[in-house]
Predict the structure.
Amino acid sequence: MALAKKWQEHSDTIRELQASSPHFNDIFAEHSDLDQQIRRLSSDVVTNASRDDEIEQMKRRKLQLKDEIYRQIDKAKLQVSA
């Protein structure tokens, strides 16, 4: 599975974390799933209008996951350089 452009800079670390951490795998997959759902819902103007609150909740959750993903990436990089 190809990584999205925003993750390319950290691709090696992400692959290592995916291989070693089930939790990282779960949050990374959830983030990717939310990204696809948000894009799909946002592109459908009719559906989007009736689901604004749901889309906003998804975006907030996605941001929380992104923050946790970056924390784990940073932690893994610190462990490698220590």
In short: The chain has a mean pLDDT of 89. The two ends are 30 Å apart (CA to CA).
